Amino acid sequence: MPVQRSRELLRRERRYQGCLLALKLVAAWRLGAAGSRCGPRAGRAGLWETYNETPGGMWGIYAAKTREQQRTDDPVGQQLLEAFLAPKLFGYRALIDPEFDGTFTLRRIPELAWTTKSQYLVDAQLTGSLSSGLEGNGEDNLLIGNAGDNQIDGRSGHDTVSFQGSRGEYQFDGTEEGLIVRDMVEDRDGADTLVSIEVLRFTDREVSSAEAN
After folding, report:
1. Relative to the CA of 182, which of 17, 50, 140, 175 has its CA 20 to 30 Å away?
2. pTM higher than 0.70
């Protein structure tokens, strides 16, 4: 009896593994594993939302351009996406081009076509030395400035700004515009103005914005 039972459990395990493999293969096809810009995955990432030459995405090959359209035009694909992918890019830090000049936002702004993609980011870091701005969204964002003097606005959520030095290497000044954090080490973090930021992360400790102020 123990031998027969072990064989039955082995057969069940093999059937389960076979079903799981089949599901993964189907999901890989539906998610566009052959390329990150394919089908449902591209629609979920906002890659085709501003494409207006055809009704659908992928030059009209795929029915939907946005997540909202996927729910009605491809509900099966939408269910697979939700089962395998997080709603936003948690755990991924976007490095912003050093030549970007302006305010990089993680919010969807209809007038800015590129925000169809950036709205799904959670963590972002400015690079280079331009005094650009950085703006969060409704998530708990991790925002990091560059060597310039940055304006960093977390907006809603419980947001953190990270710095490259220890707390004692910075000066703090509360103003009407926000909390100014000035790096005393040259050519590193600059002087950043923080708005709607809850946590300041240094290499040796974290402090609340209220404590720093």
Report:
1. 140
2. yes
